[in-house]
Design goal:
ATP binds at residues 236, 300-302, 369. This protein has 500 residues and is of the alpha+beta class. It contains 14 helices and 19 strands. It is globular and about 65 Å long.
């Protein structure tokens, strides 16, 4: 978890003058200047599919001209998950010059640009482009007149493993994770790995903030953090996380909704590629290990009108405004439907179970990490006041998840939804009689999708989430994820039932 409050002024440090370029280009002309400055040879165009993975293709410098940033360039949309059918496959990408960055993953000098997806027939933004959904959410916020900006500060946790193997067919299925940090390797003969076993394996649930030699990933995290700075993403803190076997967290400084979703895509990309450079593998799968903590994406968020934080009130509970508490009310009321976007995998619900710091209880609190919505109390500064929604995980498509949370919060404000009394006790120590009255998040992706099917009117306000986006999401998740997992035997079922 971030040890510092967001929304407070900071100065970006620099080892050498000009070594970190926090400012990004703002126009096509500035992109051209960046190309000249870094002797760029290739332009890489990146965009996000509906589930939330980047795709790309590259062009050469003669193809970079003014029309590229206005008219766009064509691609086959039928080959992208959640996009077009084969009979309507032609699509356009329009690069956003404000997102250009020198790509750290390639040896050839390459400038990457995040693109918006366009419909070439309608000559307008494509409804199923996740980035378009995010931009519409920000537009809708401004149209309400409530605020000018929604800031997000997500805390993405992830694992760095030495290797991962998995497979399943008609007669077998397995996964195998390996990590030199894994507590399960405390008794392994590691002579074949370049020396004897040196111990110092973080114990289960005891991996939070250990120094080396327990923490073997400091240099890799530092390299990731410095690379993020170089591509224009300000980093606040990095550290080892609670789980054994290489769980990590690197916290980015808050940014407006769409920009932060762009940053999340860049963050995942850089983490994965730097891990690979070191012969390791990074994963944002929420629950890759049994019996230890999973990876979450706690989302700090606040509404601002120009320079004023609308979530602050010096006389309010936990220094929060009534508007903030209504926003929380919207998050809690719509949480079951939100989970379809915020915890969007079957694996997500291996994390959302009681214990393991899992925020399954739909209540608000100050400081209490067992609540779904909490008010961090690191600072009493007005600019630091925000709500931390703890249910999301890093498997989410950030564009869709952030947009859905904002829309739920705005619905809470519009309808003055009461979030209920704060619960500042340890929820896991409540008596059964007390606990049975506390609502919880869905217990499976299937339940979350059913909740979304029943509760999505709040998402459609301002045409932010269109019917085709919601229905395509429901169909994709049910047919491509829920049903295939249902059909396959689980290894533990053999333990339970083979001798029945």
């Amino acid at each position: 978890m971030s040890s510092q409050p967001i929304h407070e002024a900071r100065v970006a440090v620099s080892v050498e003058p000009g070594s970190y370029r926090i400012k990004r280009p703002g126009s096509a002309d500035e992109v051209i200047e960046l190309i000249k400055q870094h002797n760029i040879q290739i332009i890489d165009l990146k965009f996000t599919d509906l589930p939330g993975l980047w795709h790309h293709f590259s062009i050469t410098l003669p193809e970079v001209h003014a029309d590229l940033f206005s008219a766009g360039i064509g691609f086959d949309g039928s080959s992208i998950r959640g996009f077009q059918e084969i009979h309507e496959s032609d699509m356009l990408l329009r690069p956003d010059p404000t997102t250009a960055f020198v790509d750290p993953a390639f040896n050839t000098p390459t400038l990457s640009i995040i693109c918006d997806v366009m419909d070439p027939v309608l000559r307008q933004s494509y409804t199923r482009d996740p980035r378009y959904v995010a931009r519409k959410a920000e537009d809708y916020l401004r149209q309400t007149g409530l605020a000018t900006t929604c800031y997000f500060g997500p805390e993405l946790e992830f694992f760095i493993f030495d290797s991962i193997r998995f497979g399943q067919d008609q007669h077998s299925g397995y996964y195998y994770v390996e990590s030199s940090e894994g507590e399960w390797n405390s008794g392994r003969d590691e002579g074949a790995y370049g020396g004897g076993n040196l111990g110092y394996k973080p114990r289960y649930k005891e991996g939070y903030f250990p120094v080396p030699p327990h923490d073997t990933l400091q240099d890799i995290r530092s390299e990731i953090a410095l690379t993020l700075l170089r591509v224009g993403i300000q980093v606040e803190v990095h550290h080892h996380e609670v789980a054994t076997a290489g769980q990590n967290e690197i916290d980015m400084r808050f940014a407006p909704l769409t920009r932060m979703a762009d940053n999340v895509m860049m963050y995942k990309y850089i983490c994965k590629n730097i891990a690979r450079k070191h012969g390791k593998v990074a994963t944002f799968m929420p629950k890759p290990l049994f019996a230890d903590n999973a990876s979450g994406m706690h989302c700090h968020q606040s509404l601002w009108r120009n320079e004023e934080n609308l979530f602050y009130d010096a006389k309010g509970w936990a220094l929060t405004s009534q508007l903030c508490r209504w926003y929380i009310g919207g998050l809690l009321k719509h949480a079951p439907a939100l989970m379809a976007f915020c915890a969007p995998t079957t694996n997500s619900y291996k994390r959302l179970v009681p214990g393991y710091e899992a925020p399954v209880n739909l209540v608000m609190s100050q400081r209490n990490r067992s609540a779904a919505a909490r008010i961090p109390m690191y600072s009493d500064a007005p600019n630091a006041r925000r709500v931390e929604f703890r249910c999301p995980d890093p498997s989410a498509n950030a564009y869709l998840a952030f947009s859905a949370m904002l829309m739920a919060g705005l619905d809470g404000i519009e309808n003055k939804i009461d979030p209920g009394d704060p619960l500042d006790r340890n929820i896991y120590e409540l008596s059964p009689a007390e606990a049975e009255h506390i609502p919880q998040v869905p217990g499976s992706l299937e339940e979350a999708l059913s909740a979304l099917a029943m509760d999505h009117a709040f998402l459609k306000k301002g045409d932010v989430f269109t019917d085709d986006v919601i229905q395509t999401w429901l169909n994709y998740k049910r047919k491509r994820e829920v049903e295939p997992v249902k059909l396959r035997p689980h290894p533990w079922e053999f333990y339970l039932y083979f001798d029945i």
